[in-house]
Amino acid sequence: MKKRSREINIFSMSALDLFASALGAFILITVVLFPFFPNTGDSPERTAEVRAELDAEIASLQAALDAALSDAPEIQSQLAAAVTQTASLQQELGACSTRIDAIEEEFDTCRQQLQQTFVLVVISWGSGDDVDLHVVDPRGNEYYYAEDSFPGSDAALEEDNTRGPGNEIWLSPQAIPGDYEVYINMFSKSDTSPASIRGSILHQDGRLELPSTSLSSDGEKPLVATFNVASDGSVTIR
Is 178 left (phi over 0), alpha (psi -120 to 50) or beta? Predict the structure, then answer.
């Protein structure tokens, strides 16, 4: 009997809880939706219209939210692809910058090479005398049979003849800019007649004639010519 009474009390309490919950929900809905039902009066038709408008608005918002959620993965994929493409473009830009730097270095090297010139000085004579060519470069190095080359220089006396008829040749594959002096020395006179010496300066743009020189005795060493190599590789004589 006591058990049956307890079941009835529990059932009564559950019904009261359900009623209270429903009433609270109704009050909450009324408070929330009250502003959306202005001046509806007692017209059910107007209430239905407002409810329909709210339902339509909610449905539209829900559809927009669903569409946005549906498009989110694709947008994220596109964003990831854009980030990857940007990184690839940055790498290509870095590679292009490196190639441009290399091209500029090659251009500077070519320009420097174009501004350099080889210079070859040659003399020749027809007598049996021993004639020597001497060339003094802008550094003060004097090239001749006893010192035919110097450290740090690619220039050298390439040919020395101790008895004529003969030739002597001095060559600088990449002549440094500055003034050069050309001397001719009668080292040993064996013929009775004067020795006639002629010569030329050859460079990448052409040929310049040295003044003809006549030597009659041992030890004569006149300055035959001074020539200049400019920074652009051009050669002039004076």
Answer: left
Chain-centroid distance of CA 97 in Å reads 4
CATH number of the structural domain 119-237: 2.60.40
Integer-rounded Cα radius of gyration of the chain? 53
Helix (H) or strand (E) holding 99: helix 44-114
- Rounded to two decimals, the pTM is 0.56
Contact 227, 236 (CB under 8 A): yes
pLDDT in tens, 85-137: 888 888 888 888 888 778 777 756 555 555 578 999 999 999 999 999 999 99
Domain map of the chain by residue range?
A: 43-114, 119-237
Strands of 59-194, DSSP E:
119-125, 130-136, 142-143, 156-159, 166-172, 178-188
CA 20 vs. chain centroid, Å, equals: 80
Q: Which of 204, 195, 206, 190 is closest to 168 using CA atoms?
A: 195
**Could you tell me the two tokens for 72?**
């989110």
